[in-house]
Amino acid sequence: MVLAVDVGNTRIKSAVFEGNTLLESFVFQKTDLEKSIQNILNKFKNTTYLVVASVSDVEKQAFLSFEKVVKIHFVSHSDVFPFVNCYETPQTLGIDRMVLAAGATLQYPNQNRLVIDAGTCVTFDFIDENNRYLGGAISPGLRLRYESMHNFTAKLPLLTLKNPKDFIGKSTSESMHSGVVNGLVYEIDGFIDDFKAQYSKFIIILTGGDADFLAKRLKNTIFANSNFLLESLNQTFQYKIKND
Q1: Active site residue 96
Q2: According to the model, what pLDDT value does residue 220 have?
Q3: Of the residues 6, 79, 96, 125, which is catalytic?
């Protein structure tokens, strides 16, 4: 069994896999890391590997305390990946984006793939049908948009995510909800349209904490899978074992 752990900017997500089958997933705060990992290992005693992908400042030492129980692997740029990295600054490409690109390459062969991860930030990652990672885009996510309007203005309130009643806001709060939600939806659909105009045989994977909320609002046909990063992390590790 493999325990895959994704350390994000906001929370930690993890899942236990038997081969490519996801047995159970978990979400917890960074402050609960060691206790939560221990509870998972206690429940799944046949876990042999702990695989970590991190874009956060969580110290490796927090995971290394489990190295007497499981083998630990931190995914890094030096790992073998199933795509050619054509990013102009490959060492700055986030590990989470590399894992998503690897998962898309392995799960959807021989086609152009766009992976959209809607979390704290929204990332767009494009891998062509020849398994070349070409790049993408990074944009503020829903929560960041709400927080930015509150933090960088004098009077706009701090709102939480809410489905706008209409695209025309009839109050300040309704206008903010419309701007945040509809603005991001239009942005994502616009990016997808631009990619579609240039590439054929196209597949779009939407993942991340806000994937389900956004999926039903997009005009384009997508595959929404909130666990795609964890699945990709497990598959990336399996690919490494076979190809090292």
Answers
A1: yes
A2: 83
A3: 96
